[in-house]
Design a protein that fits this description.
By secondary structure, this protein is mainly β. The chain has no helices and 7 strands.
């Protein structure tokens, strides 16, 4: 079933991560670029709450990253690893 949402991310995202967190019924969107031709990595994350269909939290990452990975850990936290900041590969985990 397709549902048109009124909630919008603060930035369009390409090359980002999107991770479903079942314990809180939310999707974490992190990093990426504002479009496919940008070389500027985003340093933000947003949490989309599925039951209310709203963005419930947003914030700043330790470092800008695009093309990294996001892994849901057994304790329900999400590990964000490396990526590219628009100029160099990054070596951060958060």
């Amino acid at each position: 079933m397709f549902v048109l949402l009124s909630a919008r991310l603060s930035n369009a995202r390409a090359y980002h991560t999107a991770t479903y967190i079942p314990s809180i019924q939310a999707i974490l969107f992190s990093g990426g670029e504002s479009n496919y031709t940008s070389s500027v990595a985003l340093q933000t994350y947003e949490l989309f709450d599925i039951p209310s269909l709203t963005i419930i939290r947003n914030g700043t990452l330790l470092a800008p990253k695009t093309g990294g990975t996001a892994t849901l850990l057994l304790n329900g936290e999400v590990l964000l690893v490396e990526g590219y900041d628009g100029l160099n590969d990054t070596i951060t985990c958060e």
